[in-house]
Amino acid sequence: MSVKQGLLALLSVEPMGVAQLRKEFEGRTGGTWPLNIGQVYTTLQRLERDGLVERTDDADGDGAIERFVLSAAGRDAAEGWWLTPVRRGTPERDELVIKVALAVTTPGVRVRDVVQRQRTETMRSLRDLTRLKADATTDGRVDELAWSLVLDNHIFAAEAELRWLDHIEARAERASAFQTSVSPTAGTAGTAGSAGSMSGRGSARSAASPSPTLGERSTR
Predict the structure, then answer these.
(1) What is the CB neighbour count within 10 angstroms for residue 51?
(2) Compositional bias (Low complexity) spans (predicted)?
(3) 51 or 65, higher pLDDT
(4) Is 210 part of a structural domain of the chain?
(5) pLDDT at residue 211 is higher than 60
């Protein structure tokens, strides 16, 4: 998330000082993305440089000497942010995705074991998240609503990851069964990739042609 856009959104409500902005940002996002004072102040300096915020002379309730208010350009930027969907570009490097991709193409790696260990960890995380969700109060406070929605996002992501792990396991087992049934030298291939490994097929494909990137796939 852009801290810049988050601060603009908060300042669209009322003028705030650095400490209040930090407090509001963390409270409204459930404390998931903590900020330090220096980060908030540096961002405000950049917003001021770009003509999106201005300083006011009065002090706020936290005793800050300066408060910041949106300029006309800043208000336009904040309103534009609400109306602009968040673009999903090329995903960032995900260690789990990289691990699985390498596991199914590396001889001797038991994909089933990799998947099972990850499934155990993801289920543990899901239980923790579900417990936090159950403990979250529902008294209508906006900060509690924000925290609840953040937890929902993490729970949905964990559930999706479990489904993806099930999918990997099923695909790996089908690939292993296919190799065994069609190749008289399946034993040799099996040495390169034990049960649940797709190393033979992955190596052959890699040798034939490089795989397209996700960005290239999305343009096809």
Answers:
(1) 12
(2) 180-213
(3) 51
(4) no
(5) no
